[in-house]
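MODEL INPUT / OUTPUT PAIR
PAIR INDEX: 1
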Amino acid sequence: MAAARVPLWAVCVLRMALATVYFQEDFLDGERWRNRWVQSTNDSQFGYFRLSSGKFYGHKEKDKGLQTTQNSRFYAISARFKPFSNKGKTLIIQYTVKHEQKMDCGGGYIKLFPADVDQKNLNGKSQYYIMFGPDICGFDVKKVHVILHFKNQYHSNKKSIRCKVDGFTHLYTLILRPDLTYEVKIDGQSIESGSIEYDWQLTSLKKMEKPSAESKDWDQATEGKSQDWEKHFLDARASKPSDWNSELDGDWQAPMLQKPPYQDGLKPEGIDKDVWLHQKMKNTNYLTEYDLSEFENIGAIGLELWQVRSGTIFDNFLITDDEEYAENFGKATWGETKGPEREMDAIQAKEEEKKAREEDEDEQMMGRFGGRENIFKGFHKRNEL
């Protein structure tokens, strides 16, 4: 007897009981999203969002998300949730983005903000913890941003991570682990991973050497030939002769002896008895291990970006501490509709191609009839003459 197949949604429910889901948004309750999301009024020229599944989709309701609506505008919108710290925990940020307008220049990234962010005044200067997602502009910029905020500075991942540039919906996932490793996934596939410390070039903030940490019995020897090195020195063992007459001979001075030639590399006695290492001291700007992957007061997620051509759709937002739950949620949302979405796009493309061909044929036919009409008119005119 074959085993019963467990629906994917049931797996998600089971994992949710084990995982901590800080935020989840899939816009399945219609216009109620406006009660959870706040559009910034910082600038009267900010563009507006609407709920839409776009011109083509895999499922009309499931694929509805926040869509930008006005060209050449800045956008700023956010949703608040119960503040949390990811100390000692994995942090997963995931969402889908669809540039159905074939993006030429604009952002498709999201930001995580501290709990005290002013949602009504959200703008490009609002401090954020994490910025993650695609950014496209012309031929040069087609990248996935992963920017982390530490010690009042924003640090970008030094690796170049290429984003998707077509008009279909794509699933973006960022994983930050407490062991200082990270992973970036697109459509469930790992495309980049590594060390948070090294890939964000944070090693300079780790530790510095203490310059005064010498051993107590360390002999401070100068390196190289000193500037006051002389070729002669007084003979300290010499004594004034008994028959020396100061009135006739003048004041007595000890004779000068010649020094041996200077030899580089002379060392004080005992210098090579052991290897002395600089002591380490904590840099006042040093980020501890937890600092590198921890944010204390995460409390909001938002879109703060610029777009030349509008039409991008953002959906299926998720913040959790469970990688398996995030994977299952991605499969239950994007995974279920990605295929039908492409099928609908292909059908529409064929219909548009057919329509264009028919219009072209109509134009050609009208051109033929137009030519015959001119011939008949000319014939009648000649008869009149």
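PAIR INDEX: 2
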Amino acid sequence: MCEKFPVVSVTGPRQSGKTTLLRELFPDYRYVSLENPDLQDFALEDPRRFLDTYDQQVIFDEVQRVPHLFNYLQGKVDEDRITGQYILSGSQNYLLMEGITQSLAGRVALFKLFPFSFSELRSVDLMPKTLEKAIFQGFYPRVYDKQLLPRDFYPNYLETYVQRDVQQLTAVQDLRLFRNFVRLCAGRIGQPLNYQTLASDTGISPVTAKAWIGILETSHIIFLLPPYFRNFAKRISKTPKLYFYDVGFASNLLGVATPDDLIAHFARGNLFENLIIAEIVKQRFQTDWSPDLYYWRESNRHEIDLLTERSGKIIAAEIKSAATINASFFDNLQFFEKHVAGEMAVESFLIYGGLERQDRSAASVRGWQDLGGVF
């Protein structure tokens, strides 16, 4: 995209490895961190001279620290008409995207970088060997690079996120309540999002709850999975389900202290569902900007955990954390196939907590580590 756009932006959750990746991919680019007080003052006091000094092949990190610089960047790239002129990154995605959408729309190629995927960890032989350890550790690079314990990394991660990113937002005036809000969100993984009850449990208004969910989405802490309807207009009006981009962060918020805690944990099924769906979301973002993933639920509570449309058919998956396959695991898939019979073909998958791959009459069975090609 550097050959097509004057500006490239890389967003993603804090500590997902954006800076490291950009410096490795673009070794010939000058790296400028606007967390450096001297450089920040230069950009604030004389933005035109600053951009003349750093005029091309520059990585601006933490560019949201100087919000008015986006207006000058717009003028600079329009005047110079050079592709690959600037690469922008930053940890405060809410402010970064605000600057991009207001000043650089149509001039910037957008990319997202998430915590490690299964394939990335396998490539360096670091993929957790057990399901419980994968959920417990999560996939943030520093957990693996620095061999940090989740109980040390994730509480610090939450505090850093709140103090450095959230504190500057006018929508959040009580940081203690916001921390509690994030923990309550972890307890709602895989559930339809109800702003009224979430607000009541936190002690805030539904309007504030909706604003805070938006902050967590833009920060790439959580994502919302919309419901599937053949009538596309209905997708907007129905209730999405909530998931975390990193299941290790979610499990820590729920008080999981060891991998063994997850064997009989009340949220095991929800955390496993989060693990699988977040991994598939990462896979989809690697190949397509829009994941186009959904869940399906009908009035009698029959539910499909994850589905998409591909090549004129529906790909549907049921997700179960058990390591042993039970015949009842296929019930919702079979009901769904009958429900859409005559409208669209359905390819069904059961993703479970074991390791075997099987071809059953009701669905193809995949173990939790074997997700390639499913979606």
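PAIR 2 NOTE: Residues 117 and 237 are 31 Å apart (CA to CA).
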